[in-house]
Write a structure and sequence with these properties.
Elements lengths: L7 E3 L5 E3 L7 E7 L8 H12 L4 E7 L11 H12 L18 H9 L14 E4 L5 E5 L9 H9 L10
Parallel strand pairs: 3-4
Antiparallel strand pairs: 1-2, 3-5, 5-6
Length: 169
């Protein structure tokens, strides 16, 4: 069975990071953009992350320029924008495509696990996927779903029993 841990992604700073780094955490994967009507959701995502990170929750941001060219900046510009305007401290990754032939494998998998209004396509920036501690996709949320509205679902995922470790410990 495929899980989040089977993927890698490049951070904003160019480091290749295995997503197994987040094994055992509840993860919210979000395709983001700096010049979108939903961009203020960065603040809500940061609040949710700050509130629950000590309980094993993490937000992973993936900038995407596929929707209205709303993420035209370089990785450095994206990082500076997120930090300066929203104090983003959760992990941010390099720009990716989420639809089409060049879609990042992570988003191909997420879309296959939880289809949206457009079936296997992502509709717009700030589509969110909630991933359980075992790396399976629990839920998909529309771009207009505010991060605060996810609090109960995230808390429920955090309260679920953690998966057994592979070595049986």
């Amino acid at each position: 069975m495929t899980t989040l841990s089977d993927f890698t992604a490049t951070t904003l700073t160019g480091e290749e990071r295995p997503l197994s780094t987040y094994a055992g955490d509840v993860v919210l994967v979000v395709n983001t953009a700096s010049k979108c009507g939903f961009t203020p959701q960065y603040a809500g995502l940061e609040n949710l992350y700050e509130e629950l990170k000590d309980d094993g929750f993490v937000v992973l941001g993936f900038p995407c320029n596929q929707f209205g060219s709303q993420e035209p900046g370089t990785e450095d510009e994206i990082g500076e924008f997120c930090q300066m305007n929203y104090g983003v401290s959760f992990p941010m990754f390099g720009k990716v495509d989420v639809n089409g032939d060049d879609a990042h494998p992570l988003f191909e998998w997420l879309k296959s696990e939880k289809k949206g209004l457009l079936g296997g396509r992502i509709k717009w920036n700030f589509t969110k996927f909630l991933v359980a501690r075992d790396g399976t996709v629990l839920q998909r949320y529309a771009p207009n779903t505010e991060p605060a509205a996810l609090t109960d679902d995230v808390r429920a995922a955090l309260a679920a029993p953690a998966p057994a470790s592979p070595d049986g410990a």
